[in-house]
Amino acid sequence: MYCAGYYKAMRATRFDLGEMLRHQEVNYVGALNMLDAVLPTLLAQKAGHLSLVASVAGYRGLPNSLAYGPTKAALINLAQTLYLDLQPQGLGVSVVNPGFVETPLTSQNEFTMPALLTPAEAAQEIVAGWEAGRFEIHFPKRFTLWLKLLSHLGDALYFKAVRRATGL
Ligand SMILES: NC(=O)c1ccc[n+]([C@@H]2O[C@H](COP(=O)([O-])OP(=O)(O)OC[C@H]3O[C@@H](n4cnc5c(N)ncnc54)[C@H](OP(=O)(O)O)[C@@H]3O)[C@@H](O)[C@H]2O)c1
What we know:
- This protein is mainly α.
- It has helices spanning 17-45, 68-86, 119-132, 141-151, 155-166, and strands spanning 49-53, 92-98, 136-139.
- It has one domain: Rossmann fold.
- It has five helices and three strands; from the N terminus they run H-E-H-E-H-E-H-H.
- It has a three-stranded parallel β-sheet.
- The longest helix is centred in the first third of the chain and has 29 residues, at 17-45.
């Protein structure tokens, strides 16, 4: 399971290349390092499971997510491709897309986080998703299903809905 992650809110009006690259290193390149370390063994034994922790912030662009969102979108795409390549080899692949969980990572958020979960609740959701053999494990559904719905809108409607919901 690749769970390490880094998040600092950033908007394009305060673009910071160092912070952009740090997000890429921790959130995405770290996952590649993990794959490099474990794939040879998993492929040889033809058994095992890989799980990448991405985020609903990877579904589509969001305000304050300039540095974080693209790394999570990359992880979701990576997990999908890993699934296609590795499932026929007898390996499991899943991607975990949490909504808001109360951790040091989200303590910097200055807004009221909707449908906030405790880490224990998030862990239970992840284990239940693994047990059910799901590819995408997203939670809490009362929040993530709305985001999924939003993510299927055309661009113009999507941008309007996000601006209305966030005020940004
Ligand atoms: N909290 C949420 O609402 C939320 C929502 C969606 C997705 N996520 C994702 O869930 C995962 C866990 O996040 P969290 O909320 O539990 O955040 P967290 O409490 O800030 O934990 C982040 C973890 O990443 C590790 N980490 C950070 N930089 C690292 C580095 N350079 N090398 C190695 N490890 C590093 C930290 O290790 P140390 O403790 O050793 O620093 C820590 O274990 C992340 O991938 C995050 O993007 C979280």
